[in-house]
Specification:
Radius of gyration: 22 Å
Order of helices and strands: EHEHHEHEHHEEEEEHEHEHHHHHEHEHH
Number of strands: 13
Helix content: 25-40%
Distance between the termini: 28 Å
Structural class: alpha/beta
Length: about 450
Amino acid sequence: MTEMPRQMAMVGFMQAQNCSIAPGSWRHPANALDFLTPDYFQRIGRVLEDGKFHLAFFDDRLAMPDIYGHDHREAVENGIRVVKMDPISILTAIGCATKNLGLGATYSTTYYEPFHVARLFATLDLMTRGRSAWNIVTSLNDSEAANFGRSEHLEHDLRYDRADEFVECVMGHWDSWEEGAIIADKASGRFADGARVHALNYEGKYFRSKGPLSVPRSPQGHPVLIQAGQSGRGRRFAGRWGELIFVVYPNIEAGRKQYADLKAAVAEAGRDPERVFVAPACYVCVGETRAIAEAKREAILELSRPVDGLVLLSEVTNFDFASKDLDSEFTDEELQKMSWTGFKDRVVMLSGKPNPTVRDFVHFSGRGTIKEFPNFVGTPKDVADQMEEWFTTRACDGFVLAATHTPGAFEDFTRFVVPELQRRGLYHKDYTGPTLRENLGLKRPNARDWRI
């Protein structure tokens, strides 16, 4: 049997809010503003499915951005990612409007309970016939903690220690029902084989949960696991659990190194690196000519405002950027307290300074603008050339496409770039099957496979 050629995994990066991850996107003249309706998200879902995207993925935070100046009003006035609806309801709506598109959402291991998350995603998986994915996060800041009745956010490595137990508990719950446990014999009145449904009785340092889970297994076994850890502890966590690993690379050279590091972490965890997909976030500006594409990019850059980056830097680092002037260096103590270690480390690396300034964070992170991620700009051929280089030189296994505006960015990619990538044999021409695992080429897991 001939092995299928390696092809890109493609993810549409979405937000359950008023803008894409680029906060100025809502100001774009062509951006739709009916984001408080199911029609908005279903429309995007259909575009992604037309483009044969593997997954529509929702990032999430559990608080409005209010670390900057310790007030939410600046963020609200400027529409800086302030609407944050629960993504599960939205994914359910998209699932009703699509047939093959995978549906992924972020849910925190810090502020939810394992049984709740296990039941939520197992149900979504059944209601979408095996298309769901869970993005495992540990959350970021004190505002999220305050919304859940806690005074401060947990320390970085401790969050991941708890997260390991959390995922073990969720996976154990997903193993509650063996294959074929449901009999549903009306004549005998026997619904299921009780010997094939198991209590969990999980007891760890941080979590205890009895079970069994009250939701049977889905057509894909259990939801696909997404992770985005890039720090040392986060990388080990991603190596153990992630089937899709989302990353942020400043450039292709850094990408190749970090890609190799992540694959090594997967191997160290006793898993097959070829069955784990590493996908960096990117923006695409494509047009009939390079000049048109570059004009699109410039117009989008002009939509961002300085306050966008400062508000979002405060949110992601759990540090008030209004408390320092632009050229003030961060002390070692301040850097140590920052929440997202991988984000901070990237700014330190790119700036070449052990103690970057506020201005360095704004410039080298690109936060609040489309400069935060690599930009692929030009004609369909130009964009495909750039993506092919990243893919074939092993900087990635696919991409997480962020939207410069919605739904136009996804429409442009589907119309211009997908056919060119398909022509080169780098992108699938149709879905393989009805489940997300089939379309990613992932084996359907049996109960307890993860323990091996």
